[in-house]
Amino acid sequence: MRGAHVRVEGVSKRYGEQVALHEVDLEIDAGSYVVVLGPSGSGKTTLLSILGGFTPPTTGRVLVDGRDVTFDPPARRPTTTVFQDYALFPHMNVARNVGFGLAMRRVPRDERRRRVEAMLALVGLEGAGDRDVATLSGGQRQRVALARALVVEPPVLLLDEPLGALDLKLRRQMQDELARIQRTIGTTFVHVTHDQEEAMALADAVVVLNGGRIEDRGPPERVYLQPGSRFAAGFMGDSNVLEGVVAERTQDAAVVETPLGRLRVPAAARAGERVAVAIRPEHLRLDDAGGLSLGRGQLRERHFYGTYQRCRVSIGELDLLVFAPPTARLAPDADVALSVDPADVVVLPSDGGAGTTP
Predict the structure, then answer these.
(1) pTM
(2) Cα separation of 27 and 46, whole Å?
(3) CA-wise closest residue to 37 among 278, 224, 226, 167
(4) Which homologous superfamily is 238-357 in?
(5) How far apart are alpha carbons 193 and 323 in whole angstroms?
(6) What kind and span of H or E run contains 274?
(7) pLDDT by residue (tens digit) across 282-335?
(8) Which CATH fold would you assign to the domain 6-230?
């Protein structure tokens, strides 16, 4: 298979007075795995529905490999969709479910059988063609839905929260499977989810939506470590966000006045500018060896999560979230020092408020 390039130009969607999407512009590289991420009501499912032809946009257009498909029905588009509820046919066995699209395209029986068997092998269900779908587990049904969408060799595969119904262990297993399959076949994947960890595990590029607008887009590492907006900083995992004002600007850094005192950090902000300072909880250290001292505080809460300890540390009126190593020995109400590497501090435009973004 060959993935297609997708271009979204000025796409808006209105439902009466409600605006679900605001003039969204988006480029999706051929053969890439793009995850569209956002909270409920952000517009991500509306965008996917417009890409799949299930919902017409109010304004704008959608192009696939340069062809305008904005008002083409789903059956005429170079896309297929895997739905959250899988939408399998209960009266058909696995092989007939997978081969349904080929049958509708009048693919000869022998070729249809060959392609169905090859696709079942690709998704890890080799030899399961005669099984009744009612006997399958949730993960197996998800694989059947994926095989049915891919067997027709679409240039673009759309996935609408396909892992949402699975338990945590199976969800992570299927994340690995989806990534493997996408790399193997080279189809362009556009995957919608509200799960930040899922997005970072799968994506070549993440698109963060909020209120029908794109807040940030780029490689998951960049969006997580250097978010482009305050919303992206808070939505892509936990973050401590403090209000501040740039007190002075030097050649390679800004000195920001914050509730934790003056912080000298790499930033391009101007003197006098109001900013927000974001620090990931895993970047905070419960000692003074991080390079930039943040003062001392009191350990208020500690919860063991296996790979880390989730701690709350109070410094004055501030409540900071800290991820400590699992082996750290921490006594209740202990007096602790806090520090951070200045390179891990992100300075963003301010929009009011202070504290920990959940």
Answers:
(1) 0.88
(2) 17
(3) 224
(4) Nucleic acid-binding proteins (2.40.50.140)
(5) 25
(6) strand 274-279
(7) 999 998 887 899 999 999 999 999 999 999 999 988 999 999 999 999 998 999
(8) Rossmann fold (3.40.50)
